[in-house]
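[STRUCTURE TOKENS]
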Amino acid sequence: MSYATPEATHRFAKRFAQYKDFYMAHNGLLFSKLGFGTFKKEPYKEENYTFDYKEALTTAIHSGINLIDTAINYRYQQSEREIGEALQALFASGEVKREELILCSKGGFIPLEFPFPQNPYAWIEEHIIQKGLASKKEIELDQHCMSVAFLNDSLHRSLENLHVNALDIYFLHNPETQLQRVGHEAFYAQIEEIFRAFEAWVEEGKIKSYGVAVWNAFFMKKNIVSI
């Protein structure tokens, strides 16, 4: 099975019946109320990339957590790759099944790679511009891009990093990063185009559902000027 199922998430939760109110139901699935996140701030500090999450993730799953959240840009793709390695080992041992876990990732930020490239601008030129995934004007602050081609490439990179065929939830990552540059009208048109692509990816079985992961997007309003 490519993604979480009601039967499997219920089966997983039953193993931890001693936990009172630790799981909640949504869309038929049982989610652990505590999830496993893989973001690390201050990304340019080398010490943030010299450890890994594999042992911690394995312990978390053994302890009843079935909600795993990441993003392709977290720790320059290292977070996804470490999750993938840990899950491969767990699936191979039979300790847990793919359909028992709810996997979430995000696309929108330029991921680069670990170890950090000597010239990140050259990496963007080689891996995004030259491949026709986006034009330079579609990249904001040398770090964020929402072209459908770039997001499609990001999704496939995430699936490869995680060693899975599909994600349970795929988020458009901080789309408000582009709002000021493109303006409201073009921004909403772009969001509609992206959501049409997401719907197609649902039909193709690459993702089960989708949404937006934001900091302040829902608090932004158009400026109203009175004359």
In short: Helices lie at 6-14, 54-62, 78-93, 120-129, 148-162, 179-182, 184-203. The chain is about 35% helix and 15% strand. The radius of gyration is 19 Å. The chain has one domain: 6-219.
